[in-house]
C-alpha cells in the first residue's frame, strides 16, 4: 500500500482584485468625462425663462440655430421639408408633443414661421424649450413685499 503524501503547498483562498478595481475606476472616469459629449443634439443657446415643472413625454424635437438652420431631431433640413419629416407622427398629432428649441438670437419672425409650419399640420401640442432660470426659493407672498 502506498501512502499518499500531502502536498506542502496550501491553496490560496484570496484573489487579488487590485487590477480589476483599477480598470473599473478608469472606465468610470472615462464614461463620466465623455457622457456630456455623447448626449448629442444640436447646439442651441436657449433663452432663460421661469417655467412650471412639467412631465416631459417623448416627441420630435425641432431645433433652430442662431444662423437660422433648422434641424429635425439631429438632421439638418430645409424649412419646407419639415412637413415630410412630421408625417410619421401624424396619426398621434393630438397627443404627441413637438418640442421647438430655438437659439435666443433667432428673430421672432423666423420662430413664428417654424411654429406655423408645425401647426398647419394639425399638431396641438407644440412646446417651446427654454433653460429654466435660477429658481427663487422665496415664497410668492414674501416676494411682493
Largest sheet geometry: 5 strands, mixed
User: Level of helix content?
Assistant: 25-40%
Question: What is the number of strand segments?
Answer: 7
Radius of gyration: 28 Å
The SSE string, one letter per element, is: HEEEEHEHEEH
Going by CATH, the architecture of the domain at 48-132 would be 2-Layer Sandwich
Instruction: Name the overall outline.
Output: elongated
Low-pLDDT segments? 137-145
CATH topology of the domain at 48-132: Nucleotidyltransferase, domain 5
The whole-number mean of residue pLDDT values reads: 80
Strand order in the sheet with the most strands: 4-3-2-5-6
SS strand fraction: 15-25%
Q: What is the name of the CATH class of the domain at 48-132?
A: Alpha Beta
First and last CA, distance? 102 Å
- Find the structural class using helix and strand composition: alpha/beta
Structural commentary:
There is one protein chain. The protein has 145 residues and is α/β, with parallel strands linked by helices. The chain has a domain at 48-132: Nucleotidyltransferase, domain 5 (2-Layer Sandwich). The chain contains four helices and seven strands; from the N terminus they run H-E-E-E-E-H-E-H-E-E-H. It has helices spanning 18-38, 82-85, 108-120, 140-143; strands at residues 48-49, 61-64, 70-72, 75-77, 98-102, 126-128, 131-132. The protein has a five-stranded mixed beta sheet, covered by helices on one side. Strands 1-7 form a two-stranded parallel sheet. A hairpin with a 2-residue loop joins strand 3 and strand 4 (75-77). It starts with 17 loop residues before the first helix and ends with a helix. Mean pLDDT is 80; it is low at 137-145.
